[in-house]
UniProtKB/TrEMBL annotation:
Residues annotated as transmembrane: 63-85, 106-126, 132-162, 174-196, 222-246, 258-279, 299-319, 340-361, 373-393, 414-441
Protein name: Transmembrane amino acid transporter protein-domain-containing protein
Membrane topology field: Multi-pass membrane protein
Alphabetized PANTHER family for the sequence: AMINO ACID TRANSPORTER, AMINO ACID TRANSPORTER (EUROFUNG)
Keyword terms: Membrane, Transmembrane, Transmembrane helix
Subcellular location, record wording: Membrane
Amino acid transporter transmembrane domain segment(s): 38-437
Residue segments, region Disordered: 1-21
Pfam families linked: Aa_trans
Length: 462
């Protein structure tokens, strides 16, 4: 018998505002973890996506070439959008799921939970580290390197720790409303500036007009190419945070519409900004891209970007801290009550994440290399592979024994797609990590390359 329509799409009921399968009873004695509306969900999702990743897209296009780079970006957007859809569907089918490790536990038992727990925490800690690195670059640019870079990184970590310690995503939403326009304004300023300037900041001075050397098709080595694709994957790597966001929505049934709105907007922004900056800068594009225009524009763009980068750090520090916090106190009255245990556990989580992130930012102080490593080593395990397994888990038995027919063919097509997603994710993890590690080794080998815990100005990288 062919599966019914409901077998392939989750059926949801109206949410109970006073009880949650993750947080338990919602009372006035503690924080309301279920307080994010549709618009707030869109803004939070877009801020988890548009942040550090957009700053690495032009340099990725320089490696791959304009056409292959855009095609890779679109392919990654399609896969991660489907992954985002599966998060919402799996959450509605399994209301007890709070984060990706809960999904792993349902599908694969304790080994799946342990693996995805470790990957999730590492992924967001590395994200937090890259945010600290980005903020230190911004502070160096705005202040024209007024003090040691390690000190700027410490300042970023301290401020980020304070903001990420806000306990609910509902209250962090107002920060996202500030951060998203700021980061967009910064990249738009640079995009306009590189279009009207004679040449990018790092281009050599020549007689007569300067012509951009942008390439339709690049010719990178395998390691360079796969590392660039990993940069593009990182740009769409806010996907695992969608678990936490949907868990704190007032009505999770609105999730899919919010996610599609987010992904459409993010892809359009990435394509326009990436293409324009690369077209005008060519191989002289900076990474992060905000330094491409140079001079006063560089200072202005980073001044706008700093609030956005700080909000990015707030979110990517808050999410893993909340993950550890919820798992530590789940089933206890301390989870939703303002007790000493509650506050001690929460502050310990945010502080611990921040300290480790600061060490990572200081140890791998090359923006492109760190972003590529995150996208390759941890991106597929967070954004691609588990989502293919989620569909197979929920729908394999429902369609396996169905009669031949249109619906059965649809089931088979999605099975093939789900397996493809798992396979391509595995390839990206292995090959991308190799390419990223090669890039980091090459960076340390170069004369004048960045070093760990360096005081040198890191805002002039190309």
């Amino acid at each position: 018998m062919a599966p019914k329509e409901d077998d392939l799409h989750p059926v949801s009921s109206a949410p109970d505002p006073t009880h949650d399968d993750v947080f338990g009873e919602i009372t006035e004695e503690g924080p309301n973890f279920r307080n994010v509306g549709f618009t707030g969900t869109v803004i939070l999702m877009m801020k988890t996506q548009i942040g550090l990743g957009v700053l690495a897209i032009p340099s990725a296009l320089d490696v791959l070439g304009m056409v292959p780079g855009i095609l890779c970006m679109i392919a990654i957007a399609v896969i991660t959008t489907w992954s985002g859809y599966m998060i919402g569907a799996f959450k509605l089918n399994h209301r007890e799921v709070y984060s990706i490790d809960d999904a792993g536990g349902i599908m694969f038992g304790l080994p799946g939970r342990a693996y995805l727990s470790a990957a999730f925490c590492l992924y967001y800690i590395f994200n937090s580290g890259s945010a600290i690195l980005g903020i230190s670059i911004g502070l160096n640019a705005v202040s024209t390197h007024a003090t040691c870079t390690a000190a700027f990184a410490a300042v970023a970590a301290i401020v980020g720790f304070g903001l990420s310690s806000i306990r609910t995503l509902g209250r962090i939403t107002w920060l996202a409303w500030i951060g998203l326009p700021c980061i967009l304004a910064a990249v738009i300023i640079v995009t306009i500036a590189v279009g009207i300037q004679d040449r990018p900041a790092s281009a050599p001075e020549t007689e007569g007009p300067w012509s951009s050397d942008w390439k339709v098709i690049g010719h990178p080595s395998f390691a360079q190419g796969i590392a660039a694709v990993s940069n593009l994957l990182f740009a769409f790597s806010g996907t695992p945070g969608f678990f936490s966001i949907v868990s704190e929505m007032r009505d999770p049934r609105q999730y899919t519409g919010a996610m599609l709105t987010c992904q459409t907007g993010v892809t359009a922004v990435y394509a326009v900004i990436g293409c324009v900056i690369y077209y005008y800068c060519g191989s002289y594009v900076s990474s992060p891209a905000l330094g491409s225009a140079g001079g006063a524009i560089k200072i202005i763009s980073y001044a706008f970007a700093l609030p956005g980068l700080l909000v990015t750090m707030t979110i990517v520090t808050h999410i893993p801290a909340k993950f550890i916090f919820v798992h530590a106190l789940r089933g206890s009255r301390h989870l939703t009550s303002n007790t000493l245990v509650h506050w001690t556990t929460w502050i310990s989580c945010t502080l611990g994440i921040t300290v480790i992130a600061y060490i990572i930012a200081s140890t791998i102080p090359v923006f492109d290399a760190l972003v590529s490593l995150i996208g390759a080593l941890l991106g597929p395990a967070m954004c691609i592979q588990p989502m293919g397994a989620m569909w197979l888990y929920d729908n394999w038995a429902k369609g396996r024994d169905s009669d031949e027919g249109a619906r059965s063919k649809r089931w088979m097509a999605i099975v093939v797609w789900s397996v493809f997603v798992i396979v391509i994710g595995t390839f990206m993890m292995v090959a991308g990590t190799y390419g990223s590690v090669v890039g980091i080794i090459d960076s340390y080998s170069e004369s004048g390359g960045s070093s760990a815990f360096s005081c040198a100005d890191n805002s002039n990288s190309v």
